[in-house]
Amino acid sequence: PDEVLKDLAKASGSGSIGEQVHFDLNRELEETFIALVSVEDLRGNKELKTENTSWLNFRTAFYQLQRGAWNLPILDMGNILNGERIEDTQKALEHVLAETIKKGGIPVILGGSHDFTFSQYKAYDHLEQAVNLAVVDARTDLGTPEEELNANSFLSKILFCLLYTSDAADERSS
Question: Residue 108 class from Cβ within 10 Å (0-12 exposed, 13-18 middle, 19+ buried)?
Answer without folding.
Answer: middle
